[in-house]
Amino acid sequence: MEEKISNRLTRINRILVWPTLILVIVFVFSGYGITNPALMGELSGGVLNRTVSIYLHTALAAPVLLLLLIHILIGLRTALTRVGVKEGTLLDAFLVLLAVFSIVLLVLLETLKS
Questions:
Q1: Who contacts 75 (Cβ-Cβ below 8 Å, separation ≥6)?
Q2: Sign of the CA dihedral running 46, 53, 25, 59
Q3: Among the listed residues 56, 30, 55, the one whose alpha carbon sits nearest the alpha carbon of residue 44
Q4: How far apart are CA 91 and CA 71, in angstroms?
C-alpha cells in the first residue's frame, strides 16, 4: 500500500516538475525585466516591458511558490524514507503539517504585502 502511494507521488512529482520549471523561468525573466526593462524589451521583442514584467512577477509569485512547495514536500518524503524514516501516518502527518504551516505563512505574506 505504501509503495503504491510512493509510486503515485513520484508520478505526480514528475508531472508537476515541467509546469513548475516553465513558471520559474518566466518568473525569473519577469523579475529581470523589472530591474533591466530595456534589455528584456529588446530580447523579448518588446513583449516584456516594465509594466508587463511587474504584472507577471506579482501574478506568478503565489503559483510558483505553491508548486515549488509541493515539489519540495514530495522530494522530502522520498528522501526521508530513503534514509530510514518509516513510511506511514506519522510521516504523512508531519508533511501535511509542514505544508499547512507553509501555506499559512505564504498567505500571510501575500496579505501583508498589499
A1: 13
A2: negative
A3: 30
A4: 16
Rounded Cα–Cα distance for residues 1 and 73 (Å): 20
Task: Calculate the alpha carbon distances from 104 to 55, 64, 76 in Å.
Answer: 23, 15, 19
Q: Which DSSP letter does residue 109 get?
A: H
CA–CA gap between residue 93 and residue 104 (Å, rounded): 16
- Classify residue 77 as exposed, middle or buried by CB count within 10 Å of its CB (0-12, 13-18, 19+): buried
Q: Which pTM was predicted?
A: 0.81
The C-alpha cell at 102 is: 507553509
pLDDT in tens, the chain (114 residues): 667 878 898 899 999 999 999 999 999 999 999 999 999 989 989 888 999 999 999 999 989 999 999 999 999 988 888 898 888 888 889 999 999 999 898 888 878 876
The C-alpha cell at 111 is 496579505
